[in-house]
Amino acid sequence: MAFSKENIKYTLNGILFVALFTIAAIQISEVGFIKKLAISPLIIGIVIGMFYANTLRSHIPKEWVPGIVFSSKQLLRFAIILYGFRITFQQIAEVGMAGLIVSVVMLSTTFVLGWWAGVKLFKLDRDTSILCASGSSVCGAAAVLATEPVLKAEPYKSAVAVGTVVLFGTIAMFTYPALYKAGILDMDPATYGIYVGGTVHEVAQVVAAGGAIGGAAADNAVIVKMTRVMMIAPLLIILGILISKSSAKEAEKSKFKISIPWFAVWFIVMAGVNSLIHDIEQVKPIIGWINDFDTFLLTMAMTALGMETSVEKFKQAGAKPVALAALMAVWLMVGGYFVTKWTVAAFGA
Asked: Are 13 and 66 in contact (CB under 8 A)?
């Protein structure tokens, strides 16, 4: 047992080791040009974690490994719960029906496309397909991390999915503002914000792509994006039920046990709590501290994930996950454009 009397000090050493890497990742994310590119500490964490995994791993006591695994599993669930303090139901109401519809349509269609195309078209395994789909459809690396416990997927598959999010989310972050400023995207700033929030991968990338235009574009982009983030909870609950049914069929059982990811339920609860208290002046500093602490925990989880990922596993995955992510990126950019235009025309921005 990781926390037995004999092993607890080694496990704590492993957790502390991950925490030190995490501090480094957060410090690096604050460096001038990296901050300008809006590269989140989560991404930096997985990169330096992978660097460790493929260079110095053999020099670290194996007794520390349970602490690294604890950081990538249990701490992750707690971090996803705290993520609820970034969202309020009032924000969702503010953006109106158009933002909600774009979020629901783009999330569901992208997720289904990614799952189906990954398994049927690119012949990838189920877990890699779903992880790539969740990263593209919901909120990037955080969604991949949230989905991994439901699937009980191997860490390297999550790392592959995060890699695709980094690649195509970064491309989108620079491409969307360029297309808008060139007049290719025929929409007003408010509509552009809904489009960005409904289709760009990471929260940080949305902030950058919306902030490049500013005003209503920046505000709508963030609000619609946070609506997508909130939908990770019902998505994971439905996914848990589908996975449970699938497992029961494979085992030829007449009954199955539904595996509900309770951390997703608690995520909604925390969002509800935040909705009630976020306007209280005395509470705002506490919520800010919770969000900073949550970023630290999420970065720990990403760093630990990287520490469990070797380059050999990436080689095994090949180019197919990248091709799958490219297909979803095209759908998000092109399909999302028309979905946003039609929805705003029907319901207003």
From this structure: no
Model pLDDT for residues 285-322, shown as the tens digit of each residue: 999 999 999 889 988 988 887 887 777 766 766 789 99
Contact between 200 and 331 under an 8 Å Cβ cutoff? The reply is no
The alpha-helical segments, DSSP class H, found in 200-261 are 203-211, 216-230, 232-250
**Contact present, 180 and 209 (Cβ < 8 Å):** no
Residue 281 CB burial class (10 angstroms; 0-12, 13-18, ≥19): exposed
- Is 37 in contact with 202 (CB distance < 8 Å)? no
Question: 169, 140 in Cβ contact below 8 A?
Answer: yes
**Neighbouring C-beta atoms of residue 39, cutoff 10 Å:** 22
Q: How far apart are CA 205 and CA 155, in angstroms?
A: 24
Other beta carbons less than 10 A from residue 330's beta carbon:
12
Residues of the chain with confidence (pLDDT) below 70: 1-2, 38, 246-261, 313-314, 316-317, 349
Which two tokens mark 108?
């569901």
Q: What distance lies between CA 93 and its chain's CA centroid?
A: 23
pTM: 0.72
CA dihedral 6, 308, 110, 103 (to 10 degrees): 50
Question: Quick one: which of 203, 87, 78, 85 has its CA closest to 149?
Answer: 78
Q: What residue type is 64 in one-letter code?
A: W
Domain boundaries, the chain: 8-347
Q: Are 324 and 109 spatial neighbours (Cβ–Cβ below 8 Å)?
A: no
Beta-carbon contacts of 134 under 8 Å, excluding residues fewer than 6 positions away, are 111, 114, 143, 144, 146, 147, 161, 232, 235
Give the distance from CA 248 to its chain's centroid.
28
Taking only the tens place, the pLDDT of each residue in 224-241 is 887 888 788 888 888 888
Tell me the chain's radius of gyration from C-alpha atoms: 20
Say if CB 261 and CB 240 are below 8 A apart. Answer: yes
What is the distance in angstroms between the CA of the first residue and the CA of the last residue of the chain? 54
